Here is the input.
Amino acid sequence: MTEITENTRRIIEKEDRLLSYTTRVPYYPLVVDRAKGSHVWDVEGNEFIDLLASAAVINVGHNHEKVLEAVHEQVDRFIHYTPAYMYHVPHTKLAEKLVEITPGDFEKRVAFALSGSASVDGAIKAARSYTGRNHIVSFYHSYHGTTIGSLSVSGYGSDMRKGMGSLVPDVHFIPFPDSYRGKRTEECLESFRELITMIVPAESIAAVIYEPIQGDAGILIPEQAFYIEVEKICRENGILLIADEVHTGFGRTGAMFASELFHIDPDIIVLGKAIAAGMPLSAIVGRKEIMEAWHTPVHFFNTAGNPVSCAAATASIEVIEEEHLLENAVTVGNYMMERFKDMMTRHECIGDVRGSGLMIGVDIVKNRESKERDVQTTAKICYRCWEKGVILAFFSGCVLRVEPPLTMTMEEAKDALDIVEASITDVENGLVPDSAVDQVRGL
Ligand SMILES: Cc1ncc(COP(=O)(O)O)c(C=O)c1O
Here is the structure.
């Protein structure tokens, strides 16, 4: 069992004194010391199998040798010179790679930033500049980030908006399909049609922004029919498609980009999280004409396109390709989903298992009939996993978030799931007290 000492407590107390609580979503007292592949060690020397991958950022595994080499080599040359004023090779090399691997057989341009949120802002700015239209359509339960722009298009919960004053105007929300909790595709499409007939003329809408698979909503995977119709409405009315692939990108779903699963070539694709294997970087890749409709320097960040991050990103993409990580995500992901489905036969609290590749959600409910979310049990399972040596978090209050590095082996997956099942059993047997999860905030 994981043991912590005064050392860990002191570090956490200091954090609590110094850091804004609102920047954190604490789960358990894990102070990371080092990490390699799918394993993480805390400052006490406890070892964990990582089912979180730093929130789907570490797709190629922690501290992959090839990424380390690229970073070291670039650091030795120069750490930064802003590509806004000068040129550097890692910047161009990565842009070339992104243009090549993103969906869409058309001329593209790339713009870098430092966070998914900032790149979502960029996508909105590009869409508005190009179309000359103001309105943006987004979805309930979507998460696009925390800058004012990305928050404005996030339908994640009114708490996030409290006290924020006026957000970006002319943003409209419609429902997103949720086959488990009964939000039907046709109902969602009807809301879109109603929006454009009753509220906002289609010719005033610049773009629809969507996560191809909603992540923070608890892994919601629409059926193909939904996207066929959304795309049709958009194409008929000159509305741009902005795919926010910050979460789904770089192999997470078993495809390089989830747009490929739905056969859509978005006009703009937003990238972040795993793009640079943990180094700070994000990007938008869009049709040339859209990405050139704005004025310089409307989307400029001094340290964006940092050469060390760019070198890490190119190396990371090469790792995904060379080590066949898309295939591994599908193989290990399917195995994990089957194991969770098998657990359903023994554990009543598992209401649903869904996912694609290694983007898996396990819905924990009070009752399979009512599908009422069991927030307390979910938090306890994650807490027990930490005690037993697995890093596990949750979305949407009750959906276990199973998103390990794409390098995870079958053996590691098996070991991790043995611990997850043992933790579920412990929680069912009342071995985790309510007090243990007082501190768990989760999402
Ligand atoms: C789909 C999606 N878009 C945007 C963001 C925001 O990215 P960042 O936290 O890097 O600003 C996230 C972050 O979790 C995300 O999941």
In short: The chain has two domains: 6-60+324-437, 65-322. Residues 115-117, 120, 143-145, 211, 215-216, 244, 246-247, 272 surround pyridoxal-5'-phosphate (CB under 6 Å). The domain at 65-322 is CATH 3.40.640.10 (Aspartate Aminotransferase; domain 2).
